[in-house]
């Protein structure tokens, strides 16, 4: 059985000489969900400026307005053109930034809002999930030098063909990290609606613990396997450019979770950093083609392949449910026998300590077996064990594994000074 977890290459970033005191603060959709929340965020940004930082704030669209824009597109057209969809869904973040700039002015500070394009975020030409290839931060530097707070619309850029692109759902995280790297910021603060990264989704597991520190590798695996608190790509850029991330709450002053290089103490304190899950994942079984041809065609169709297992002449792979249409079209275009299952989800146990401690897989399988949960496909990386289980078993599997690895205990937090 072979498995792969592929992460993308890093973007080239221009002019990353460190500037003391630059802080990038990113606020997610819930954090800017209504006018009062935007005013609260403005106060927080102004306070960071008053403390002596050069502040760049990256904002998401208000609440779930990106979802509404996507729905609107599909109300008008069954297959909206990707270029026009990007023109439409990129406006949400612009609205947040313009409103926040107004609120900041009312607090007596200077601010300027910029679209991704104005901020110099240059991407490739792939609509809907573009990758940042360059950050031309001249305009941001100028505004900071004029003592202004800079607000940048997240989730978007301008392509090398001069079209507006978006970076994939959750993409404002990546805007923030790429800017932090390009500006040589000391840290990138990700403000969200939970207090940090937890040992499991706190909305599903009430006894989940907030992690004090997580390594880039662990966070990559957690994000790739369903902890949607950070977009995978943002963690990748942070790791490649050594940007320290601090995930914390918009609604409190508490310290959150630091994401940074692996450190001995992370391993001493707890083997496992968390249990993650996805509720829906399509599992495809393909017969009659070679992997090189199959995955080239899927990549071209933009299907985000996760697990790959090859046994004999059969190839199994999984991909997110939202990529199903593209996968179906690509597979139909090949002359192959294929089937897909849509009744599965995935639960994963992630932790850097697994590398040096055998027995984690055994404990995970025993736990699921004792709970009567059947495993469909299992894949591992050096720091992850991922199991496809029936969709209706996902929640129970997360709760059982969380308990089995004692992630509700204080040691799971990896608290250290
Ligand atoms: P934002 O709008 O701020 O970008 P997101 O909704 O993208 O916020 O991400 C935050 C959400 O991620 C939380 O509300 C939480 O339900 C979910 N989440 C899933 N797994 C985890 C985890 N392990 N730790 C923290 N949050 C998690
Ligand atoms: N507004 C975009 C989304 O909902 C980007 C983001 O919030 O990061 O996916
Ligand atoms: Mg998000």
Helix proportion = 25-40%
In the sheet with the most strands, the strands line up as 3-6-2-1-9-11-12-10
Distance between the termini: 42 Å
Q: How many β-strand runs? A: 20
Based on the structure, what is the oligomeric state of the protein chains?
single chain
Low-confidence stretches: 1-10
Per-chain topology:
Elements: E1 22-27, H1 35-50, E2 54-59, H2 65-76, H3 82-89, H4 91-106, E3 111-114, E4 121-123, E5 132-135, H5 138-145, E6 149-153, E7 156-159, E8 164-166, H6 172-183, E9 187-192, E10 213-215, H7 216-224, H8 232-240, E11 245-249, E12 257-260, H9 264-269, E13 274-278, E14 281-287, H10 291-300, E15 308-311, E16 314-320, H11 324-333, E17 337-341, E18 344-350, H12 360-370, E19 377-381, E20 384-390, H13 394-404
Parallel strand pairs: 1-2, 1-9, 2-6, 3-6, 4-7, 9-11, 10-12
Antiparallel strand pairs: 4-5, 7-8, 11-12, 13-18, 14-16, 14-17, 15-16, 18-20, 19-20
Helix pairs in contact: 1-4, 6-8, 7-8, 12-13
Aspartic acid binds at residues 28-29, 60-61, 66, 92, 154-155, 169-173.
Describe this structure in words.
With 417 residues, this protein is α/β, with parallel strands linked by helices. It is 33% helix and 24% strand. The protein contains 13 helices and 20 strands. It has helices at 35-50, 65-76, 82-89, 91-106, 138-145, 172-183, 216-224, 232-240, 264-269, 291-300, 324-333, 360-370, 394-404, and strands at 22-27, 54-59, 111-114, 121-123, 132-135, 149-153, 156-159, 164-166, 187-192, 213-215, 245-249, 257-260, 274-278, 281-287, 308-311, 314-320, 337-341, 344-350, 377-381, 384-390. Strands 3-6-2-1-9-11-12-10 form an eight-stranded mixed beta sheet, sandwiched between helices. Helix 1 links the parallel strand 1 (22-27) and strand 2. Helix 1 packs across helix 4 (91-106) and helix 6 (172-183) packs parallel to helix 8 (232-240). It is globular. The two termini are 42 Å apart. Residues 1-10 have low confidence and may be disordered. The structure holds adenosine-5'-diphosphate (ADP), aspartic acid and magnesium ion (MG).
């Amino acid at each position: 059985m072979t498995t792969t977890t592929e992460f993308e290459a890093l973007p080239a970033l221009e002019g990353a000489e460190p500037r003391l005191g630059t802080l990038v603060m990113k606020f997610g959709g819930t954090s800017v969900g209504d006018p009062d929340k935007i005013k609260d965020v403005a106060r927080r940004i102004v306070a960071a400026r008053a403390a002596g930082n050069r502040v760049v704030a990256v904002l998401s669209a208000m609440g779930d307005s990106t979802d509404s824009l996507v729905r609107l597109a599909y109300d008008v057209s069954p297959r909206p053109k990707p270029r026009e969809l990007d023109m439409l869904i990129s406006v949400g973040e612009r609205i947040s930034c313009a409103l926040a700039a107004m609120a900041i002015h009312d607090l007596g500070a200077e601010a300027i809002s910029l679209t991704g394009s104005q901020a110099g975020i240059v991407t490739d030409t792939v609509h809907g999930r573009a990758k940042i290839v360059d950050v031309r931060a001249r305009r941001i530097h100028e505004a900071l030098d004029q003592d202004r707070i800079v607000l940048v619309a997240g989730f978007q850029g301008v392509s090398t063909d001069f079209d507006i692109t978006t970076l994939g759902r959750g993409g404002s995280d990546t805007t923030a990290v790429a800017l932090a790297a390009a500006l040589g910021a000391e840290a990138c603060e990700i403000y969200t609606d939970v207090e940090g990264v937890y040992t499991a989704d706190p909305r599903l597991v009430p006894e989940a613990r907030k992690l004090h520190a997580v390594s880039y590798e662990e966070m990559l695996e957690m994000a790739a396997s369903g902890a949607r608190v950070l977009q995978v790509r943002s963690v990748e850029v942070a790791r490649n450019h050594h940007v320290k991330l601090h995930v914390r709450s918009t609604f409190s002053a508490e310290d959150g979770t630091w994401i940074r290089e692996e450190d001995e103490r992370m391993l001493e304190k707890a083997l496992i950093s968390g249990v993650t899950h996805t509720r829906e994942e399509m599992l495809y079984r393909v017969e009659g083609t070679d992997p090189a041809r199959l995955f080239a065609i899927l990549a071209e169709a933009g299907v985000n392949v996760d697990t790959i297992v090859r046994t004999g002449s059969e190839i199994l792979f999984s991909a997110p449910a939202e990529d199903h249409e593209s996968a179906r079209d690509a597979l139909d275009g090949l002359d192959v026998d294929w089937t897909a299952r849509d009744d599965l989800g995935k639960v994963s146990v992630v932790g850097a300590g697994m590398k040096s401690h055998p027995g984690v897989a055994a404990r995970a399988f025993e736990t699921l077996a004792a709970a009567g949960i059947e495993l469909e496909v299992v894949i591992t990386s050096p720091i992850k064990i991922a199991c496809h289980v029936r969709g209706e078993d996902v929640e129970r599997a997360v709760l059982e594994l969380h308990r089995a690895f004692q992630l509700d205990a204080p040691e799971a937090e990896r608290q250290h000074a």
